[in-house]
Amino acid sequence: MAGEVDPDWLHEPLTDKKREEMLTLMAAGLVGIHRYFEPHRRDMARANREEHTYRRPAPKIGRNDPCPCGSGRKYKHCCARSDPTTLH
To answer: Is residue 65 within 8 Å of 75, Cβ to Cβ?
Structure first.
């Protein structure tokens, strides 16, 4: 990244002092970015919690309830044993 900003970057060696200075500036920049976007992150998290509450379209099927496929067996011995996304 420094090579894009400073055209002489490749021509001068990186000293310990310059490396420490760059790391300090990068850390300060990162903290500033984090603080700047903090209200945005909180707003988005709040909106996601409020908007994405899962509502089941049908009542939940209990394991001991009769299977909705009409076989007359308990759900746990019928469709719950097969792939839970498909009913027969």
So the answer is: yes
Q: How do residues 50-88 score in pLDDT, each as one tens digit?
A: 776 677 888 888 889 998 888 889 988 888 886 555 544
Alpha carbon distance 66, 12 (integer Å): 78
> Could you give the CA distance from residue 35 to residue 29 in angstroms, rounded to a whole number?
10
CB 74 within 8 A of CB 63: yes
Cα separation, 31 vs 35, whole angstroms: 6
- Interatomic CA distance for residues 65 and 67, integer angstroms: 6
pTM here? 0.40
